[in-house]
Amino acid sequence: MAKNRFILTDLSINDPLCRYFNFKNIEFDFLPCEYDVPVVDIIADRIKGKADVVLILGVNKETGKKPFTLKQLYEQVSSYNDFKKLRSRITLIIYDEYDVILQLKDIVRDKDNNFGFSSWINDLKPLILTDGKVGDLLKKDFKDCEFINKGIPCLQMKNIYPELITLKKHNPNRDYMCLMVKKPNRDFRRRLHEQIVAKDLEKEMIINFNERNEKTFQDLKGQFQERIIFRHSFPESVPSIEYYNQTNLELATEALCSDHDNSFDLSEKTTKPIMMKHPFMMLANKDFLKNLRDLGFQTFHEHLDESYDNEPMVDRRIEIIMKNLIDLKGRTHKLYEDSKEIRDHNHLNLQHQAGEWNTKFWQTMDTIWRNI
Question: I need a surface site. Which of 145, 165, 249, 355 has the fewest CB within 10 A?
Fold first, then answer.
């Protein structure tokens, strides 16, 4: 990389990319957290006289009560500078440690609040570092952007707890568990919950379908010291061991789930049953299980119908999953026992993936910085 390159970013100093810069002795600087002038004016002033500028902006970073930097660049009007004109002097990279694909999907999906914003991003033609595989629909919405998969952040060692399996004392009294946060832009969860109620399967499950509130992590409070959970930056990633003790199979709902979409990312919703050596079904995008197997994990097609993974329509996926729940009712303990080899393999592979994550991330970054 050129020695006189100037890197400017709105990332946190604790971000893995900043760690990479620090260890590689790559100089970079931060945009201020608070400012009283349009952010484009700050950028223009900071890059004045510099010939090789890389600007790295998060897609969902917020500064205090202000919108994230990209949104401010889109919404704010400056009397002195136009970001599209500055763009010709800048290598623009969109990056976040988490949820890049999800945030881009939500920008496109929320047309009322983001009218023109997605088109503006596409017109800038940035390099977008994603946290998974970008599907065909997203590539169409951002057809002029270049996408590079930087690695799935929830597979980092700091986000998994494979050692907690030593605390599991499996003594099931229910077939299933299904924990879902109710959100307006996750309508597929509502549809799944309606089907569970309609088929009278709630009594076979530990189920939660509520909006996030102060009680969301109360199930963890009785199992771990408060300082472990409520001072943790990502309590969602800590499994509720007592629920895994009481059930034989988890039905998890990933954040990416829509019709005709094959974008792939995984979150703690997938890693928790794996770290707890639990069988699972996933309501997610088409080909989610296929992509999971590509990462070296095994799924449970020998024990249940996983054809839902091939279906382009969400309602059809839900239909097949519901049939599985009905067919397996009262027989999940056998599935649990018979799937031990798969569960053990996945637990080891999760640790293998986590152990390699930083090295693969740095290798990807090396390639990027050599070629921009």
Answer: 355
Query: Domain holding 310: CATH number?
Result: 3.40.50
Q: In this structure, what token pair is assigned to residue 355? A: 């152990």
Q: Tens digit of pLDDT for each residue in 253-291?
A: 999 999 999 999 999 999 999 999 999 999 999 999 999
- What do you get for the CA distance between the two ends of the chain, in Å? 8
Q: Residues near 268 by Cβ (< 8 Å), separated by ≥ 6?
A: 154, 159, 234, 236, 237
Query: What is the tens place of the pLDDT at every residue in 110-122?
Result: 766 666 899 999 9
Burial class of residue 48, CB neighbours in 10 A (0-12, 13-18, 19+): exposed
209 lies in which domain range?
157-355
The domain boundary residue, chosen from 150, 177, 196: 150
- Is 99 in the same domain as 189? no
The Cα–Cα gap between 340 and 170 comes to 13
**pLDDT value, residue 113:** 61
Are 210 and 314 in a shared domain? yes
Rounded to whole angstroms, the Cα distance separating 372 from 369 reads 6
CA proximity to 69, closest of 13, 30, 119: 30
Q: Are 138 and 51 within one domain? A: yes
